[in-house]
Design brief:
The protein is of the alpha/beta class. The protein is built from six helices and nine strands; from the N terminus they run βββαβαββαβαβαβα. The radius of gyration is 18 Å and the shape is globular. It binds iron/sulfur cluster (SF4). Iron/sulfur cluster (SF4) binds next to loops.
């Protein structure tokens, strides 16, 4: 008998609203997996990969996660967001996605686009979020090209999103959009105040960063068919975890 592949889980919470990307504002439950192949300088979930929350990782089966989602969310939800870390490191997520779909629950997932998984095709809203220069990471364009082309082959529902902190990031974001012009594209204002826990103290900074990004994108003639978003949940909860 084949062993059930367990999934490393750090957080299960919700329902709450999705604060980012193509499903911003959507009521959803969150499942956060552990592990990432990147180490972005401004990662807001570094605990998923830096060892600081190692003791909190639980190895759960798909059904155990679903039981937990039901125990917390009851009948209040029909959408689950899988986040990380980089959930694309986990081939075993296919069973979890299938089980959610079997219950009429749709699934969103975000990854930086450094690995392919065949289950990408079955994600209802997939966000590829290649990381700009301020992250300190280097994009493997060949892998990203392959991922985008495989998704296009089967007309999968996906978008690209780039977080922007400065002008160099904006140049990178523009390059991403020009490389994949037919993929819906989201620019998101970056948050470098990761230590602040009081949303009311963060808000002026977040508004300023969002306004800065809007002012940069509007006159840009290469960024026409784009969406400019804040990271909505930080406006309400600051950097608080599990909301
Ligand atoms: Fe953090 Fe995402 Fe970068 Fe991984 S890819 S280090 S989870 S921001």
């Amino acid at each position: 008998m084949q062993a059930i592949k367990r999934i490393p889980v750090l957080e299960v919470f919700g329902p709450t609203v999705q604060g980012e990307g193509m499903v911003i504002g959507r009521k959803t439950m969150f499942v956060r997996t552990a592990g990432c192949d990147y180490s972005c300088s401004w990662c807001d979930s570094a605990f998923t990969w830096d060892g600081s929350a190692k003791a909190d990782i639980r190895m759960l089966t798909a059904n155990e996660i679903i039981e937990e989602l039901m125990a917390i969310g009851g009948k209040t939800f029909e959408h689950v967001t899988i986040s990380g870390g980089n959930p694309a490191l986990l081939p075993q997520l296919s069973v979890f996605i299938e089980e959610l779909h079997a219950r009429g629950i749709s699934v969103a997932l975000e990854t930086q686009g450094s690995r392919w998984q065949d289950w990408f095709w079955s994600i209802d809203e997939l966000t590829l979020s290649p990381k700009p220069p301020s992250s300190g990471m280097k994009t493997d364009w060949q892998i990203l090209d392959e991922i985008v082309s495989k998704l296009n082959e089967k007309e999968a529902s996906f978008c690209l999103k780039t977080v922007v902190f400065d002008d160099e990031d904006l140049e990178y974001a523009t390059f991403v959009h020009m490389r994949y012009p037919n993929v819906p594209f989201y620019l998101q204002a970056g948050n470098s105040q990761l230590q602040e826990t009081e949303p009311h103290r963060m808000l002026p900074y977040l508004v300023e960063r969002y306004e800065w990004l809007i002012n940069r994108v509007m006159p840009n003639d290469e960024l026409k068919r784009v969406h400019v978003l804040p990271q909505l949940h930080t406006w309400v909860w600051g950097n608080k975890k599990g909301v």
